[in-house]
Design brief:
homodimer, 5 strands, 10 helices
Amino acid sequence: MTHPNFTSEQVIETLKWRYATKKFDPEKKISAADWKTLEQSLVLSPSSFGLQPWKFFVIRNPDLRSQLVEHAWNQSQVEDASHLVVLTIKKGIDNSDVNRHIERMADVQEIPKENLQGLENAIKGFLQDPPFPLDVDQWSIRQTYIALSFFLYSAAVLGIDTCPMEGFIPAKYDEILGLPEKGYTAVVLCTAGYRAADDQSADRAKVRYETEAVVTYID
Amino acid sequence: MTHPNFTSEQVIETLKWRYATKKFDPEKKISAADWKTLEQSLVLSPSSFGLQPWKFFVIRNPDLRSQLVEHAWNQSQVEDASHLVVLTIKKGIDNSDVNRHIERMADVQEIPKENLQGLENAIKGFLQDPPFPLDVDQWSIRQTYIALSFFLYSAAVLGIDTCPMEGFIPAKYDEILGLPEKGYTAVVLCTAGYRAADDQSADRAKVRYETEAVVTYID
């Protein structure tokens, strides 16, 4: 498979360019082609065992977006960004989700389901007796943060601004979007679009600890 | 700031090129320059409020890596990959971590700490009375999955293979690496390097649900 490498310098430039956008330009919209790529970044994100314990709700209804602002600490991004994604987990992932995944795998990889019995048992065994104390919804949330991050990173390499947002009331989002009836619950938001020319946070120096304070080598 | 865009096609190619590498070529090592970029991807990862509730341990001691294999379901990547990172959280993030962050921010952005009082109060308020039921360690783990994902994605755009690994016994890793004494606990592993020529999983079709099954538009 072809692989279009970035250079190291380009990676660092991209990571430094990215920031949590506080003020979007409400007039600038993400193109359909770019959006399709961002959507596919969510779809193609890795997850534990490939279970994809999530669903991504893209809220396009302007009245709904306006209604959702107040339940996200009145942060304007919810309404002003080109796109608003509510990342959700499927509650209570269980063996039926493993079955669904195994069936999909057999289908996509064109192999008999019987060949996947070992994998199926391994995943079900993990859910039954995880190697660490595990709340299955917390585990699904971790996976959803991978999808969030792939979305953020893809946006950055495309030159699209984002703001991941934990500051909202999931119960209110669930209620307004009717998520519990569908089996889902909101875990994190992501807004995407283009920074407003006067977003003051764009120019602030990125605050990170020294590398030595967060990376330790054990030789 | 300059921004080196990928095209949409390059993003999709990169995401499809990436896979969880099951077998690394033990002879192929990541160059020092590329490693520095991966390390900086961890450092530059976003986190809630920028708190960076994590530390990344890079295990270079071959005896230790060999010893760690059995506590990761005997997965060979722990020993064979060019690099092994143990991503950890700082246990029990609290107001002292907020203070440390605010001091760092004042320092990096060259502003008086007094100007950051509002932010400091907001973060402490969040920890005190979060908008959703929150176990602070689970919250830190979510953030650490962002760092994991940024590492995975940076590796992919550089043409470096990775394998994120949850299948290990955190308590054993903690014990062997002496993490609890330092205040940290292992949450996820990531191995990085180059796929072995005979890694059969490299050519398998990526298994994902249909886009329509995971992305829902609310109009």
